[in-house]
Amino acid sequence: MNARAHQVTVFEVIKETADAVTLVLDVPQAVQAKFIYSPGQFLTLRIPSEQEGRGGSVARCYSLSSSPHSEDRPAVTVKRTAGGYASNWICDNVAVDTVLTVLEPSGSFVPRSLDADVLLCAAGSGITPVVSIAKSILTAGSGDVALFYANRDRESVIFAWVLDELAASFPGRLTIVDWMEEDQGLPGSADIAALARPFANRDVYICGPAGFTATTRTALAQLAVPPSRIRNEEYRSLEVDPFAEPEVRVASSPKAGRTAAPGAHTATIEFEGETYDIDWPKNEPLLDVLLAKGLDVPYVCRESACGTCVCSVRSGRTRMLLNESLIDEELDRGLTLACQTVPEADGVHIAFDQD
Ligand SMILES: Cc1cc2nc3c(=O)[nH]c(=O)nc-3n(C[C@H](O)[C@H](O)[C@H](O)COP(=O)(O)OP(=O)(O)OC[C@H]3O[C@@H](n4cnc5c(N)ncnc54)[C@H](O)[C@@H]3O)c2cc1C
User: Fold this and answer.
1) Domain limits for position 321
2) Rg (CA), the chain
3) CATH classification of the domain holding 89
4) Among 80, 113, 157, 205, which residue has the least CB neighbours within 10 Å?
């Protein structure tokens, strides 16, 4: 079992709408330090499954809807996906005192600062990380928050009462623009551009279905918002099971001297206070190489989307095969995703401690 997996007990189940529940979690004292999180991050839940080929469980990510700044216990909010396995299992089976196996928080959909003004764009269950960011900025920071929130109909609006309370408590700092598809149809890029225009100089955080994200990005491009100020969280189901023993995709690399084996580059890796000199096969992602060496490197999706395996290139040349989570500013700081990074020359130095 993944060393970052822990058992937590469900403290409370809150029915938010006919299709969505919030699970408030009781994290044991002994691991509370590992569950310190930033607004916008997510947990990964292990869901039992008897289905053939599922290996006894599936893993799914759920954003934390609680704020680490104003709530004692972490909470996730899950909306049923039509025909989906895990979301329906959670809504039908999880109750107070259910024990869940959960990975420590991760993710990079996190505000740069709680003191900066932001534009938040959410559709449907995409409100989950967004409400955590809004609560955190309003209660613990000094930034102003504009929220564009699209929903199919009034019955499906998650956190309507939370947003009403925030609006009443922070009247000068929170602007909410609701979009109701049953009345207005799907929002188009011109609609979103018109609503976003007064806030176009802010950092933007988008969470919702792929179509909503694409339309919002088009709107922001019309307003000339630089991509480096836009972050989005894409909801999708994991292909891999991060709770299982990691699938080793490369042959274990022997500890090298300073001369690389054929087809590999030399590299130095800093991880958890230790330094490793490795042979890094030219086409193998760093995460795969380190897992093959038995290092317990944090990861969730292995597809570049979640940002869990982020590390920093201190020197040397590398490239990423795919990048769906790091923005330009982070790339400029040398950050890279271990699950997608391959070497381009000898002498690469990478550290998992980003300070
Ligand atoms: C970082 C992150 C944060 C997230 N946060 C949240 C959150 O806060 N709240 C939330 O509700 N969700 C969130 N999600 C989404 C969540 O992880 C799941 O993807 C979602 O709950 C659906 O999972 P499921 O098992 O119910 O559906 P799945 O079983 O994975 O099915 C998903 C879709 O695929 C279809 N499907 C399934 N199997 C097949 C097949 N064999 N062939 C064809 N189609 C198929 C289903 O019909 C369904 O439409 C998040 C995802 C990520 C990556």
Assistant:
1) 264-351
2) 21
3) 2.40.30.10
4) 113
Cα–Cα distance measured from residue 270 to residue 301, given in angstroms and rounded to the nearest whole number: 22
Residues 211 and 279 in one domain: no
The tokens describing 133, both together, are 């960011």
Please state, as a whole number, how many other Cβ atoms lie within 10 Å of the Cβ of residue 153.
Answer: 10
Under DSSP, the state recorded for 309 is: T
In a domain, 304, yes or no: yes
| Digit-coded pLDDT (tens) for 72-129 | 999 999 999 999 999 999 999 999 999 999 999 999 999 999 999 999 999 999 999 9
Q: Pick out the chain residues at pLDDT < 50.
A: 252-254, 256
Final residue of a structural domain among 54, 84, 106: 106
> For a substitution probing ligand 1, which of 14, 21, 61 has the most ligand atoms within 8 Å of its CB?
61
Q: Alpha-carbon dihedral of residues 325, 326, 328, 332, nearest 10 degrees?
A: -170
| d(CA 239, ligand 1 centre) in Å | 10
List the CATH number of the domain containing 147.
3.40.50.80
Residues having CB closer than 6 A to ligand 1 are 42, 60-63, 77-79, 81-88, 107, 125, 128, 233, 235-237, 306
Q: Are residue 101 and residue 122 in the same domain, yes or no?
A: no
The residue to mutate among 45, 60, 158, 304, having the most atoms of ligand 1 within 8 angstroms of its beta carbon, is 60
- 218 and 270: one domain? no
Q: What tokens appear for 177 in the block?
A: 């623009």
